[in-house]
Amino acid sequence: MRNRTRGMVAGAVGAAVAAAVAGGATAAVTDGDGRSQDRSSTKAAERSEATQGDLDGDGYADLGVGAPEGTVSGEAKAGYVAVTYGAESGVDTERHSTLTQASPGVPGTPEAKDGFGSTVVTGDVDGDGYADLVVAANNEAIGSTKQAGSVTVVFGAKGGLSDDAIAFHSPKVAANAHFGDQIAVGDHDNDGIDDIAISDREKVQLVKGAKDLRETATPKMTTVTPPGGGVSVEHLASGDIDGDGYTDLVTVAAEDSPADEGTLGVLPGSADGLKSASLGEDILLPFAHYRPVVGDINGDGKDDVVTDTGFADGPDEQKLRTYPGTADGLDSDEPVDWEGKAQKGEAIRLADFDGDGHDDLVVSDTRAEAPGGYNDAGAVNVLKGTENWLTDEGAQTFSLDTEGVPGSMEGNDKFGTSVSPADYNGDGKPDLAVGIPNRTEGVGAAALLYAGTDGLSAEDSALVEPSDLGSPATKGRFGTELMNPAK
Questions:
Q1: What is the distance, to the nearest Å, from the Cα of residue 145 to the centroid of all Cα atoms in its chain?
Q2: CA distance 438 to 444
Q3: Cβ 85 vs Cβ 160: under 8 Å
Q4: Phi, psi of 361 (to 5 degrees)
């Protein structure tokens, strides 16, 4: 939506859904029509990258909001995902659904502290032209094994999410493995169907996308150890680093304590799927808590990687350092160090908001102060991408204190905990959804910033709260995760 008004139908549906979720059920999407969209590769170049995350195939990206601490069927922190749909005027909150482990067709049962919605990504994993929703419950117990974790795939369809879903866990269930804590989706073998890479404590489990995936209750998984791994997988991301049309998997992992050192590596895609040997040289990091942010900054058709961490004790040269993508992998010999103003917070996403062919960087500063000196209100900064890499010239800052953005900036909101760049209004440029999970004492919200001529703008921005989507307005930390499209 572009403002805070909703129709009578939306209000009635919202009340009905809130009651249903409290009782363990959910409402279905009320309308829809559509075609197809998702991540493009060589064999699927006609699918616009701008409209990744299109669950109903109508040409507009859709928004999924994770509330992993939401109460479902009386079970605290069982978790849910609220879904609303894109439209020409922006996200249309009159079309919505709330997805839980009690929803029709979704395997499993809501249980306390499952954390359903702890990770939310999307990609077309069955190749039918509709994006599918991939959701982790990374604290779910499998039998008597606590916090083993599980992953659910809910398949997209004309009109919105279908009742078809599968759920699975690690082939080797282990306590505290938090299966699904990190998920990346991409077409590793360039067959036009996205594949899923899932963290499994020290390993990565690969699920190959397939046309019959929705009929496969327990998909086959291939296990790989990420470069420099063996103890923990800290981060996963997807991108085409060498520009060959196959999606590569970017990993940060540790072979010892993650606090001691980490390794940034790339596993290359190929006609046979993801390879187990690194593309190019692995890059040693001071510790394994660096997030790899993937996108094409200089516009050469090869994805680059920016490293950053929210930890203050990391060396300055490693913050916002760009490793250019090349035909031989990441360029570790000539990385590009950030030369602009020091940025507070942590780099979180790359996307081309101004349509100039260069991805821009979103830096999230959840500790930004509100007026009056209240801590942890949060803000996001957008740094421009150019052919000469990132610059702070023309940088933008957005918060709930920005003129035109609904709401007010208050301490402990944590604006920017999550972000999702996607084209919600179909104008060919990605917009930005921003999670605010601590707003209203932990009820949570999400802000929507739409792209204009020169990038993101506060004009016509919106604030979406759980009640707008018919979801419980309880302390579920709505906005902890936002549905991110496959790279």
A1: 27
A2: 5
A3: yes
A4: -105, 130
CA dihedral 117, 407, 342, 264 (to 10 degrees): 10
Q: How far apart are CA 90 and CA 83, in angstroms?
A: 14
Q: What is the pLDDT of residue 202?
A: 95
Average pLDDT over residues 48-76: 89
| Per-residue pLDDT tens digits for 244-272 | 999 999 999 999 999 989 999 999 999 99
Q: How many Cβ atoms are within 10 Å of 10's Cβ, its own excluded?
A: 20
Asked if 70 and 474 touch (Cβ cutoff 8 Å), the reply is yes
Four-CA torsion 327, 332, 333, 339, nearest 10 degrees: 110
Q: In what order do the strands lie in the sheet with 346-351?
A: 346-351, 360-365, 379-386, 389-398
In contact, 334 and 278? CB cutoff 8 Å: no
Residues 179-211 pLDDT 10s: 999 999 999 999 999 999 999 999 999 999 999
CA distance 416 to 39: 24
Closest CA to 356 of 306, 391, 327, 310: 391
Going across the sheet that includes 445-452, the strands are 419-422, 431-436, 445-452, 455-464
E strand or H helix at 196: strand 195-200
The two structure tokens encoding residue 133: 């929703």
The terminus-to-terminus CA distance of the chain in angstroms comes to 25
N residues, the chain: 487
